[in-house]
Amino acid sequence: MNQVYAIIQREFRHEMRSRKSWLAILLYISSIVYICYLGFRHDLDATTWNTLFWILMVFIAMFASSGSFSGREGEMLYLYTLVSPQKFILARLIYNGLFMLLVSLMAFVGYVFFVGCPVSNLLIFLVAMLLSVWGISSLLTVSFSISSKGGGGFALMAIISFPLLVPLLLSAQHLSALSMEGASTNGFTGSLIALIALDVIIGAMSYLLFPYLWRD
After folding, report:
1. Rounded CA separation 139/145 (Å)
2. pTM, rounded to two decimals
3. Which of the four, 44, 171, 183, 215, has the lowest number of CB atoms within 10 Å?
4. Are the beta carbons of 90 and 207 closer than 8 angstroms?
């Protein structure tokens, strides 16, 4: 675990040195949220609010995860000699997950500030958001790693991530819709289990597939 922690620290320092990436993400979030505010200022019902929020989350996740592996071939070759692929992908999943959680919370605060918040059960909504964002981050991390190896760019990444991204978003949207309706806790169980199961599947898939990519 020391190597995993060291890689996470290294990624964090690398991100802190790259101030342009943080400014780009903040500009991206504020621009999209403000466009939503201008377009739906007076007639944004709960269903539209929910759908728009998850579309926002997907695009922010893609933007934030796009630099995970691109342009870092020399660094990957260096790390190849130091750590196992399992430890490397585990560190990347943890770091990207934490990074996306922070970015998604920033986006949520901005979205609520400009557009409002029709959520009745905020705790359940935040749990749904955190589980979904972690799953999306893990899925995009492994998808970008495969597409960078294959040279397919965003097109290949979209094809790879689509089969798991759709059920993940459907479960997240259903759970967040329930949190807006003020349903009882029992009504959330099925969607919560589905989200957790999808996160586990995506994490296991990343952990098992990445060593084969690493060798190439």
Report:
1. 10
2. 0.83
3. 215
4. yes
Secondary structure (H, E, C), 19-64: HHHHHHHHHHHHHHHHHHHHHCCCCCCHHHHHHHHHHHHHHHHHHH
CB 142 within 8 A of CB 167: no
Residue 161's nearest CA partner among 145, 149, 175, 174 is 145
Q: Which two tokens stand for residue 10?
A: 């290294």
Report the range of poorest mean pLDDT among 98-102, 114-118, 120-124, 156-160.
156-160
Element (H, E) at 110: helix 85-115
* CA gap 126, 94 in Å, rounded: 19
C-beta neighbour count of 181 within 10 angstroms: 12
Residue 208: both structure tokens together: 């098992």
The b-or-e profile of 1-23 (16+ CB within 10 A means b, else e) is eeebeebbeebeeeeeeeeebee
- Per the structure, the complete domain to which residue 182 belongs is given by 2-215
Query: How many domains, in total, are found in the chain?
Result: 1
Predicted confidence (pLDDT) at residue 134 exceeds the cutoff of 80: yes
Closest by CA position to 100, among listed 191, 11, 190: 11
Residues 139/145/149/154 CA torsion (nearest 10 deg): 60
